[in-house]
Predict the structure of Cyclohexanone monooxygenase.
Amino acid sequence: MGSIGAQEQNYDVLIIGAGLSGIYSLHQVRERLPSARVRVLEAAEGAGGTWFWNCYPGARFDSETISYQFSWDKELLQEWNWKETFSAQPDILQYIERVCEKHDLYGDIQFNTRITSAQWQDTDRNWLLVDETGVQYRTRFLITCLGVLSNPTLPAIAGIQDFQGPSFHPSRWPKDFDMKRDFANKRIGVIGTGATGIQTITETSKEPSIKSLTVFQRTPSWSAPLRNAKITTEQMQKLKGEYDSTFQQCASTPTGFLHQADPRKSSEVSHEERVALWEKLYAEPGFAKWIGTFRDTFLDREANRLYSEFMADKIRQRVDDPVLAESLIPKNHGFGTRRVPLESGYFEAFNQSNVHLVDLQKTPIDRITPNGIRTTDGTEHQLDVLVYATGFDAITGGFSPIEWHGKDDRPLLGSSDGETGKRARWVDHRPYTYLGLMVPSFPNMFMVLGPHQPFGNVPRSIEHAVQVVAQLLEFCQNKNYTVVEASEEAANGWTEHVIECGKGGLLNEVDSWMTGINTNVPGKRVRSVVRYGGSAVEYRKRCQQCRAAGWSGFNFA
Ligand code: NA7
């Protein structure tokens, strides 16, 4: 690949982020463009992205480990022994560190480097990046590996700065945390009951030395059993022998998971047959109960209502106090229309005398005080520690901490009621992309797991996106192209297609991070289609067609 300058801070390819996307991008760039000067810039002090940051108690995969690891290193697949069906965060991080060591990736990853601005330089045909200390980096090509859930958001609640005890967002959990030492005899409060809150709450509730745990719930979640188990040596050997078929199976399903929907509609079968399938799924580990149910469950309101009622009864059976059980059952959205958090004893935690639920629909938070949380009924819930499991500025939000200037100085993000909104490519966080890989006006800037890509089984989506980006870079190198940019026509077509794919899906009719909502972020209060709702198989086919047609939809110079 041609050199772009003599100074040390000049690169051919820069990658932002050293999570799974970033480290595999580095590996692919090295493989396909061996002479390229490539570097990963990472804000954290270690690799792993999501799995580096989210070290809160209870953090673990709720997708099957076996299908949720990298598939590209066959040697490592045979070497690595997983301990559990759903791996815990420390084990995942250890695995990622092993990937980096084995492939000697650390030499090209620069940690503690937080990029704050990225500007396209039309004259030089490169990107100028600046980090928070003012150091500049120039690169011909830029691969953003920013993560879908990397920008944590604290709740927009009055008095948050007043709380005197320790407080943290789970994705910024103290690295030296020790549950026995730090939570012993403490009154702990958790705001938020999404997947993160549910893992944190369940794990914390199991610690016998805590004084109390108070859960502040605005919207209950349709949580269901994870059913984790240890993997024995014999089981691991067997799993290793099946990896080819495991990944083939993932490649054949719409979500990239091993599970797929039952081909029948719920209306086609009797009540007994429906319940038989639901009971079977409920007893299975992982997302079987979300993805494996009747195919109309997330398209047809009545089908969804029936399944939701079945799931509501399961919650009722697990919570001793019937009034409390009703508070824990979602009423404003159906099962699986938001991401289903999987748990290991979450509902039973509320049967403990030291675990309390504050239903914020009945008594909203008035403010955070120095000693706890005051609700609108005047009660002050006394707390020693406060956990804000209040989610992320998801998907487009990963791009927010960087000030983007594309071609003609166009911003990436802007609000419709501000000056920037007039020119921004993603007005009010509504994505506009081609294949979720590039944005017009942002030449040479690629996205791995950007908006408009399928998210399902994340490592499967990452591997595919990274390979497409690396192939496109290889194409540029072979043809001596120094600029590649998605055309407006292609981006219009793709954005329309993504919106079309989302129609009729119940998931797109519910507020959640998957529909672009975050009530704590101004400009994220209106739903938008942020992820590709078609099947991952279809997505890959479309990328393949684009490539086969000489990368149609991209302009080269
Ligand atoms: P989520 O799923 O976005 O959940 C955030 C939770 O925090 C949710 O229960 C919110 O209630 C609650 N929340 C947010 N802001 C507030 C305020 N201001 N007051 C009270 N409650 C609030 O984030 P997670 O981190 O749990 O999970 C994100 C993904 O990570 C997950 O889907 C997995 O893929 C991994 P709300 O529902 O908005 O009423």
In short: The chain has two domains: 9-47+105-151+394-556, 154-390. The domain at 154-390 is CATH 3.50.50.60 (FAD/NAD(P)-binding domain).
